[in-house]
C-alpha cells in the first residue's frame, strides 16, 4: 500500500488574509500577526466552514474557505491537535516556521467556499 504524497488542508479566511494569498500568486500564506504565535490550518472542511461562517463573516462581512495540499512527509512533523470535539483537528505550525511550511505547499491555494451574511427575513407588513 502506498502512502499519500500530499495531505489536504483547509483554512478559513477573511478578505485581508485572502488578498495577501492572492498577491502571492495563490502559493503562500502571509506572515502571522504578532499576536498569532501559530498558523493553524485545519484537517476537516466542515470545521473550516464553521469557522468561516461563525468568525470571519461577523468580523469582516465575508468568510472564505481555502483548500491546499502540503507535502505529507513534511506535514507529519506537526502533530495533529484536537482543539475540542472529535472532528476539530488542526496542525499547529509555529509562526517562525511558516516560510518553510509555504515552501512545501504543492500546487495552488484555492478558494472553495464563500460566505456572506444571510439577509434577514423581512417583517410582514
- What structural class do the secondary elements suggest? alpha+beta
Helix content: 25-40%
Beta fraction: 25-35%
Strand order of the largest sheet: 1-3-7
For the secondary structure, the number of strands is 7
**What coarse outline follows from CA principal-axis ratios?**
globular
Poorly predicted runs: none
What series of H and E elements makes up the topology? Answer: EHEHEHEEEHE
Distance between the termini: 65 Å
**Biggest β-sheet description:** 3 strands, antiparallel
Radius of gyration from CA coordinates? 16 Å
Mean pLDDT: 91
Number of helices: 4
Can you describe what's shown?
This protein is of the alpha+beta class. The protein is 28% helix and 30% strand. The protein is built from four helices and seven strands, in the order E-H-E-H-E-H-E-E-E-H-E. The strands form three sheets. A three-stranded antiparallel β-sheet has the order 1-3-7. Strand 4 and strand 5 (89-91) form a beta hairpin.
